[in-house]
Automatic annotation (TrEMBL):
Keywords: Dioxygenase, Oxidoreductase. This is Gentisate 1,2-dioxygenase. Coiled coil: none annotated. Pfam families: Cupin_2 (PF07883). GO terms for molecular function: gentisate 1,2-dioxygenase activity. The keyword Coiled coil does not apply. Its EC number is 1.13.11.4. Residues 102-169, 272-331 form the Cupin type-2 domain. The lineage of its organism: Bacteria, Bacillati, Bacillota, Bacilli, Bacillales.
Length: 379
């Protein structure tokens, strides 16, 4: 595919005219690139090590307490080096559309209640004893659970256990920030009342694949917590079949009353890469943030090998070749991921292409070196 180029020569007179237009807040379309033949991501393939993020959170734990009168949330977010230019007036996301962070809540802490127009989801990484309350339903957070807070739902978190609980947050903040159309509101009290039986949605969906008849009518979050046990069962159920050549065994979290993504603006998936899995390369328009829930391996993105292990995060930008490999001889790998398909697909942006050279495998040209110097020392 080639780019359309104008044959017109820009004379000094024309260049002066272009500048004159810009000075008057107008622009010459004829001197602009009409369109690119392919998506040109600004975000770059990138990886954050678990130690980098946890080191930063440990420092934040030493310096800051969560609660009314101090800070609302203790979270460190991942800024893609290619999106840094948006900071500090906008949000430099992990990709061009997705904000991703790791949040830590200590025993006894309450993250006060609020709501906003950006849409949130969480993946619980480790620790027991914390819960999130979303529009009156209290959902316990257990490792491997996926929890949603769709836009404009009141939500607060509490840790009633005796260990720090860590989770990944993902929101559509760079997208909503670009639209400059967000609202935010604090709840009048620190915590909202719990108005339903604890874990209400999860109990209503204990069977996993049948829905209460009232949910024939769509609602935004009939199921607030997708437990690891049920997700794992779904992935194990696929074992006797051949894995997908690009994604291994993969499932996506859906709203059981609509069949669409559980969070209407941010897609989420869990994929299992069996032992010896060596995926083939493809690329698609949607961008993805991966979290390595379990296992170790690597992903090749545009010819660069990104080695990962449990707890790491990596960003896959728009239209980037990628293939996943499980390098462990003994352990399956589980990758949780979030994507911007829900905001791309309805407008016809999504495309996918398989890599056809070299039997579908990219040649590895270099190995990514994580910024270990970024690990923040804890005194
Ligand atoms: C938020 O409400 C949470 O509720 C986490 O835990 C991260 C980032 C930006 C705006 C709101 C939460 C957030 C956020």
């Amino acid at each position: 595919m080639s780019e359309h180029k104008s044959k017109q020569q820009w004379t000094p007179e024309l260049l002066d005219f272009h500048q004159e237009l810009k000075d008057k807040n107008m622009g010459p379309l004829w001197a602009s690139v009409f369109s690119s033949s392919q998506p040109k991501p600004r975000a770059v393939p990138y990886l954050w090590k678990k130690g980098q993020i946890l080191g930063a959170l440990d420092k934040a734990k030493a310096l800051l307490e969560v609660g009314t009168g101090s800070i609302d949330r203790r979270a460190v977010y991942l800024i893609n080096p290619g999106m840094k230019h948006l900071e500090p007036h906008g949000w430099g996301g992990a990709t061009q559309t997705l904000y991703a962070a790791v949040q830590a809540l200590n025993p006894g802490e309450i993250a006060p209640s609020h709501r906003h127009m950006t849409s949130a989801l969480r993946f619980i990484m480790e620790g027991h004893g914390a819960s999130g309350i979303v529009n009156g339903v209290k959902y316990p957070f257990e490792p491997g659970d996926y929890v949603i807070t769709p836009e404009w739902c009141w939500h607060d978190h509490v840790n009633e256990g005796n260990e720090t609980v860590l989770w990944m947050d993902c929101l559509d903040i760079p997208f909503t920030s670009a639209l400059t159309s967000s609202f935010f509101e604090l709840y009048p009290q620190e915590q909202q009342p719990v108005e339903f039986p604890v874990d209400y949605g999860t109990k209503r969906y204990a069977g996993g694949m049948v829905r209460p008849i009232s949910d024939r009518k769509p609602s935004p979050a009939p199921l607030g917590r997708y437990t690891w046990d049920l997700t794992k069962q779904a992935l194990d159920g696929q074992s006797e079949f051949a894995p997908d050549p690009f994604d291994g065994f993969a499932v996506e979290y859906i709203n059981p009353s609509t069949g669409k993504d559980a969070n209407g603006r941010v897609g989420a998936r869990m994929q299992r890469l069996p032992i010896h899995y060596k995926g083939k390369a493809h690329r698609h328009v949607h961008s993805t943030v991966y979290h390595v829930y379990k296992g170790s391996g690597y992903t090749v993105m545009n010819g660069v090998r990104f080695d990962w292990e449990e707890g790491d995060f990596f960003a896959l930008p728009v239209w980037t070749w990628h293939e996943h490999v499980n390098t462990s001889a003994t352990e399956e790998a589980f990758l949780f991921s979030t994507n911007d398909l829900p905001i791309l697909e309805p407008f016809g942006f999504e495309r996918e292409e398989a890599y056809t050279e070299n039997d579908g495998y990219q040649e590895i040209q270099s190995v990514f070196e994580p910024e270990l110097s970024d690990v923040i020392a804890i005194d």
